[in-house]
Design brief:
Length: 328
């Protein structure tokens, strides 16, 4: 995504030309935000506000860099490059990405679990952990490895007001073959234990259901399920555990319910047109998530007249456009 703190913001191509408050191309982050709370979606996705501190959020940066490193490693391996060479290239690439050329210093993180050192260590240990990995990256019909795949497909659901078709989009980590069955893979990091509770977080789950659907529709493959590599990150080391989930059991139901959510999204976008700059409906049962207040709590608890002032003071803006291809 683009990190931008300048005006005017570039056009967000995922929104409708005909009804500007309506997002037509939806990824799991956007849909998940709307399901969480329409006002949260309005502020974080449609208007693109992020807390100043989130810009330097170590968890986010660490996760992005880890994914980028493993994507490169998977690509090199799928080109039959040996593990040692692929790992050295990956580490070089990661060290360069986490070096700030402007200040001539490495990325500094305030989170001791998520530093440049723990990042490099996690990459090395992950490769060591799965060095005899039985998962085999699928090679697509165009000869390319099925790694970090951007997808976009027609949902079959149309806007009532603009008659445009909603598109579903996003990025899949990897498609692999395991025991002659095809799975989507993803990696998730945590500081907590990698017990069954950890994997239960991902089924049912909006993101995993969309990955499962996308794998089946876009890549025309019978997807068996999702393989999640859990990575526990602590100051003194990393632990790994692999889990399997099967959201495809409810694929049709999920797609049917998607109609409900997209209708709600459209109705709210239509209301926005009538009453611009008014908060979207607040799901105030979700203001605390994972034991922490929502990052927009200070906006939502204040008087409406203070809303814009608080947003201007404490938040930056960027464009969340899922149609922009990731740079790796
Ligand atoms: S604080 Fe609550 S109502 Fe406000 S955006 Fe967050 S979840 Fe929604």
């Amino acid at each position: 995504m683009n990190d931008l703190n300048q005006n005017p913001l570039p056009k967000n191509t995922s929104f409708s030309e005909k009804l500007p408050a309506l997002q037509i191309s939806i990824d799991s982050t956007s849909l998940g935000a709307f399901k969480t709370c329409p006002e949260y979606y309005n502020l974080a996705i449609r208007l693109g506000y992020v807390l100043d501190s989130i810009y330097e959020n170590a968890d986010l940066k660490w996760g992005l860099e880890f994914h980028a490193a493993m994507e490169l490693f998977d690509r090199l391996k799928s080109q039959n490059i040996d593990t040692k060479t692929a790992l050295i290239e990956t580490i070089k690439h990661t060290l360069i990405r986490t070096w700030d050329k402007e200040t001539s210093q490495p990325w500094i993180s305030e989170n001791p679990n998520k530093t440049r050192f723990t990042l490099i260590r996690a990459v090395i240990w992950y490769v060591e952990q799965f060095k005899n990995d039985p998962l085999e990256t699928i090679i697509l019909a165009n000869g390319k490895p099925a790694v970090e795949l951007s997808f976009r497909f027609e949902s079959g659901i149309y806007s009532m007001s603009t008659e445009e078709q909603f598109m579903l989009c996003g990025h899949i980590d990897r498609l692999i073959k395991f025991h002659n069955q095809i799975f989507v893979t993803d990696k998730k990091t945590t500081k907590y234990q990698l017990d069954d509770n950890f994997f239960d977080h991902f089924n049912p789950d909006n993101q995993m259901s969309l990955y499962d659907l996308a794998g089946s529709v876009v890549f025309n493959q019978q997807i068996e399920g999702i393989i999640i590599d859990g990575i526990q990150c602590q100051v003194n080391g990393n632990k790994f555990r692999r889990g399997f989930i099967y959201p495809g059991i409810n694929r049709e139901v999920w797609l049917n319910h998607l109609k409900f959510w997209l209708r709600q999204l459209e109705l709210t976008a239509l209301e926005e047109q009538q009453n611009p700059n008014y908060p979207w409906p607040k799901n105030d049962k979700n203001c605390i998530r994972y034991g922490r207040p929502c990052e927009f709590a200070k906006v939502c608890r204040e008087n409406l007249s203070m809303r814009q002032k608080i947003l201007n003071t404490h938040y930056k803006r960027r464009v969340w456009d899922p149609l922009i291809t990731r740079e790796v």
